[in-house]
Please model this.
Amino acid sequence: MEAVVPESPRRPLRIAVHGAGVAGPTLAWWLRHHGHEPVLFEKAPALRTGGYVIDFWGTGYDVAERMGLLPAIHAAGFQAEELRVEDADGRRRAAMGLRTFLEVTDGRYTSIQRGELARIVWEACAGIETRFGTSIDALEQRPDGVRVHSAGRAETFDLVVGTDGLHSRIRTLAFGPEEDYLHPLGLHVAAFRARGTSPRDPRRFVVHTRPGRQLGRVACGEDETAFIFIWRDESDPIAVGIGEGDSSDPVATVERVFADMGWEWPAIRELLRAAPEVYLDGVSQIRMERWTRDRVALVGDAAACVSLLAGEGTGLAMTEAYVLAGELSRAPHPEAFAAYEERLRPLLQAKQAAAPSFAGFFAPRTRAGLFARDWAVRLSNLPGLARLFAGASLRDDFDLPDYPSPAPGHPREIAMPHPAPL
Ligand SMILES: Cc1cc2nc3c(=O)[nH]c(=O)nc-3n(C[C@H](O)[C@H](O)[C@H](O)COP(=O)(O)OP(=O)(O)OC[C@H]3O[C@@H](n4cnc5c(N)ncnc54)[C@H](O)[C@@H]3O)c2cc1C
Model:
């Protein structure tokens, strides 16, 4: 490989941002803020707005605030009040008040559909080119740029950033096969949303758990319910290895795993069969020694997926995007990339290390484990314990750095036309 030529931090960089989920548009927004020229690539034909409900807090929340997005996020989100565990007959077994989360974070916590958060961030990127239905097929690192092959044409970017999620293609192209970095945590997850469901129990996560399997629902708005299924791999060994590109039918898989679940399963099965989109994947982390190589960097789940067990993937993805763009505002890319990794590695490593211990909360393996989990849920309502538990798991040991603001007259000051919804 020839020596890499560092560019002046003053020159605007043309940067391919591969994946318009949460990390990608956040990165694009901050890159433009600092005077660079991002181009978003997204393989889906339009913005992906489906998916599951997430909890959003921490440094990612602070980043959203710096982007001026909190009013829109709160308008689209909701304040969850309770996690309720029900038995097979729909009777309450245990419940945990969720207001403690709000108290511990000084109100800086909300639940929101992942797709809504992605939409809000992307809409803030109005004026930035987004190439829907387009992926990078190949890239060649050169001393003065990255030659990118996409949609039958080749072009050169100064840098390429993979924000394309857990099964990142940029990671495979620049760092090698997924198997080298993907660490399955022994669980699978499926999720879908259904309209016209006359949602019940507003602002409550309602779950039914049997050893190794959990099924839950939460009302989203007035006419929609989100459903989530989590199960241990040993509950259904055939399902192990499901991921992007796997030909397994998600509906058939969920039906097989939850066939004797009881509770509300028969009604949920009908909604599942009619669902236009069902998400299904293994619960995994991405662990890498480096997130950058020459002129390519990874951000978000592509770099350091913490998994749903950590519950903060979107916020961390936004934090990583903010820091990478900020570092590129004050140093040429080799130093900026090094600073990005150095600043964030301790935070991401700590989050990844903590996540697996939550598996027993989502899907206890045995009846005894289930019994203990339900007692933990009940005890968490004791004021001191709740603060202790929530405080430890919600805390981010990270101070968001400040980066210099761009000069007046910078493109971010110019009103951009809004793109037509796709
Ligand atoms: C069930 C579940 C529950 C979760 N709960 C929470 C929670 O409570 N709180 C929380 O903060 N996080 C939660 N997470 C994690 C969170 O969703 C992720 O960490 C977050 O979405 C990561 O953002 P990202 O932008 O890196 O990746 P994604 O959101 O996965 O976005 C990647 C984007 O890249 C695109 N893409 C993929 N491949 C290509 C390609 N080849 N070419 C072009 N584009 C491509 C995709 O279409 C997508 O738009 C949960 C995850 C799951 C699965």
The radius of gyration is 22 Å. Residues 18-24, 41-44, 48, 52, 54-56, 114, 135, 163-165, 169, 189, 191, 228, 300-302, 308, 311-315, 317 surround flavin-adenine dinucleotide (CB under 6 Å). The mean pLDDT is 89.
